[in-house]
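Reopening this one. Same input as before:
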Amino acid sequence: MMQVFDQAPEGIQKAPHEPRMIAAGYQVALREIGFSDVHDKDSLMMAVLRGLALTDSFGRNWDALYDVLTDTQARPAKLGVLLCDFDHFCKRHPRLAAELERVMLDAQRDAGKQGHQLWLLAEELESDPKSW
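Same output, byte for byte:
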């Protein structure tokens, strides 16, 4: 069965089932950004800071995010970013999501030019049966 990590990263892809186990098998470092509580650019940057385990020196702007994702000294050569609850975020905040996507895709392309791989994996939260 073909896995997402068998191929070069291309755009925002659907996360595989059990992404943490699969990433470990491919020796891909996996970080998780949760979008459930994101409602503006500030909360988005805080989610990124937490998810990517950045320090408080992170600039919390688009340029800083791009720099973090393309910094070949500071990040693993094979990095997966799991975007949790991403579709809901995109529906709630289309303009903010479009900006984020542009920065992440630019970073993915430019990391690739430097011989690094950056997978962007959208994972949907399981719907809670109690909320039906």
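So the earlier flakiness isn't reproducible anymore. For the record, The chain has one domain: 18-125.
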